[in-house]
Amino acid sequence: MLVGKPLYLRGGYLENSLNFNEHGKLIGHSREGSYTLSAIQIDKVRLTKHKVELEGARYGLHFLGALPYEDPTKALDRVRITPAKKVVKLTIDRELVVKPKKKKESGKNKKGTPGVPPQTAAAPQANAAAAASAAPSTDALPDAPAAATASVPPASTAAKAQPTAPAAPEPGDADEAKAEMAAAPPEERPADPNSVTTTLFPAHAKKVLTDALDQIFAPGLDDRMMAAMPDFWKLYYQAVAAKADYRSKDPSVLRQNTVDKKAVLVSKFEPESNEWAQANGVAGMSQYHAVIGPDGKVGEVAVSRPIGFGLDENAVEAIRKATFEPAMKDGKPVAVMINLNVSFRIYSHRTEGKQEADDKAPNKPAQPTLPGPYSVQH
């Protein structure tokens, strides 16, 4: 089911050591990120009595500039982002299968008392009956005092007749199984022993594990993966399915070429890269559609030409924080859809140091001021 298959990690967990309970729920906390950083390949599986241990590597999806109507799967790279000699480790607790104990037979065997022949085992009962018949009847002695009718048994017989303390109940099968689990070496114990359940049926434990795997991994971009994506990715994949570019469903949203004055960016716009893109040299240009309302605020955003590696999320976040001068038509502000091209580049300590040195250089000429809303503030 797992080894060597291209999978996605549901939830977008970014940590490289993850523990899940027997129902596939994350134990503890983890950073969460883009699905484009959540591709997983499992290389090793170790099945123990209490848990499943998985080892593999994380992959990032790098889109190579395909438009929605151009089948993005043919312009997509899966790049290993787990460093060499490092692995992603995941553990999944297992429901514990217990075997019920066989009930022990009572102290008496079918033929009599153990170790005593059947004919001798019945002898005490016969002797007791004979003694009872030989004892004088109290009815024949009406004048005898009541105390005289009670005979004192021998000391040995009295000791046997004393009631004994009830035996402590034997621990149940589940309790013994959990005690065994607690006594196991730390590396073999489940991550969350308190939530582990027990069952008598291996088939039920197998189903619990299969359901947990389905909660953790996706074999592809299935409906549940799509439902968990942000809207800007949903709109992109809707366009991919329709083999058409994004169009706003709101008829009042106009295009830039149909208005008298176009919407203009009036704030700084600089999306950040991330550690995975920098480490793997992922840079380039991506494109997004954004609806700019009559108030100059950003409404719906859709990916048009993704780049992947979690950079699209950074771009959309920067777009949503930006402010615009609204478009005008017939003297009134109107909503329009614009295309925004975003460039990501590779940073290095060398270039950063050079830039800082340039900024501190004496007699450095002032930066030119660009006209209008494209002015850059330093």
Describe this entry's structure for a reader.
The chain has 378 residues and is α+β, with helices and mostly antiparallel strands. It folds into 2 domains: 6-98 and 179-226, no CATH class; 230-362, TonB (TolA/TonB C-terminal domain), CATH 3.30.2420.10. It has helices at residues 118-121, 123-134, 155-161, 173-183, 202-216, 223-228, 231-242, 275-279, 311-321, 349-360; strands at residues 6-9, 17-20, 39-47, 51-63, 76-80, 88-93, 96-97, 198-199, 217-218, 254-255, 264-265, 284-292, 298-305, 324-325, 327-329, 332-334, 336-344. The strands form 5 sheets. Strands 1, 2, 3, 4, 5, 6 and 9 form a 7-stranded mixed beta sheet that branches. Strand 3 and strand 4 form a beta hairpin.
Number of domains: 2
The number of E-state strands comes to 17
Structural class: alpha+beta
Main beta sheet:
7 strands, mixed
Query: Helical residue percent?
Result: 25-40%
Percent of residues in beta strands: 15-25%
How many helices? The count is: 10
Instruction: Calculate the terminal CA-CA distance, rounded to whole Å.
Output: 55 Å
Any idea what the shape is? elongated
Radius of gyration: 39 Å
Instruction: List SSEs in N-to-C order.
Output: EEEEEEEHHHHEHEHHEEHEEHEEEEH
- Poorly predicted ranges (pLDDT <50, ≥5 residues)? 118-170, 350-355, 364-378
Q: What is the residue-averaged pLDDT?
A: 79
